[in-house]
Predict the structure.
Amino acid sequence: MYSSQEVLIINKDELVLSHSDDSILSSNIIAAEGKISATDLNPFIGDIKNNLFSNKSGILELKFKGKDLIVLFNTIDISNWKLLSIVDKAEMLSTFNTIKKYIMIASFMALILGAIFIIIITGIIYKPISILKSAMQKAREGKFDVCITDKRKDEFRELYESFNSMIETIDKLINELYEKKLLAAEAELKALQANINPHFIYNIFESMIWMIELGNMDDLKKMVISLSKFYRLVLSEGKDIITVKEVAEQIENYITIQKIRYKDRLYVNINIDNKLYDYEMLNILLQPIIKNAIIHGIQGKSGPGCIKINGYMEANDIMVFTVEDDGIGIQEDKLEEIKKNLIDFSNSKNTKDAYYALKNINQRIKLHYGGEFGINIESTYNKGTKVILKIPTNKSAKKKIYQEAV
């Protein structure tokens, strides 16, 4: 209740029946005939008379004796008396301002407590989840050296330990898989070399014997020198990775040998950008493709044939090598079968397969550089064949194998 609040009861004849005797209106009260009257209140009642007696209840604002007052009134139904509560507006507003101030203080304190609560919850739940999420993202990118070192004493400690153990196990399995696939790649390379060498040597020796019988010592000398250089580069002291320059020299010597054998039936154009020379690539990738172009393309053709060998750099540091011939080409159903086996190498492990070398090359590229790299074959029957080989200049084989494995 306000300190300056006055309560009145007024009857329908405008007489004051009850008065709280506060000083807000007047203290000059005159009793007459057992009823309470207040002469000084007559002007006040007159100011509110119209609204007071024409409405059952309401709120009024008026100025009386220099004070801004607020009057709340209601009607007592049984007697039709008016019950008035009169409050000093300034005091009421002061009270409201005080309440408003308390509300603002309480709201501010609630915000502070809320912020403290959020910080606590973040530290307890969100932060450890964020640490785990970050570690998992690194593992997803193939960074298996990730380890959560945050020491906790809650349930997240066990979760972190389990994650670290899982990553360690995955890294170990990936290393084992990588080593096994490298061993498989080396075995495939040896198989390819073993498959190429005997047939190639037999054919060369037959050509040498034929040149000796004809007394063609110049071509024989050139063939022996090219053969020596070719095998020196192919063997490369057992290295599986050699420079593009060494590859270019390797195929040039191979072409020299084949041109001596086929004479005017074979024309070859080699155009490998020397900007690629310092980059490295897998050994024995291009030579088997060129061999296929000669045997399955040019050899079966009536008349001379031409082979174009190109090498250039594509966007994103991708090296592209193409071997294109104008030979007999590949029939559509056979081409589809070859492409299918290129995708699923397990379908064909037969080294006597005419296109085994292509499958072997594609498998080795995907194993070493990743699944998005390899060879593609384009061919039109009776028009020719084009083999496109793409490899990156620099890639993480381990990361690629992980992506393939998962």
User: Anything to note?
Assistant: Residues 26-39, 395-406 have pLDDT under 50 and may be disordered. The radius of gyration is 50 Å. Residues 184 and 240 are 13 Å apart (CA to CA). Residues 155-214 form the longest helix (60 residues).
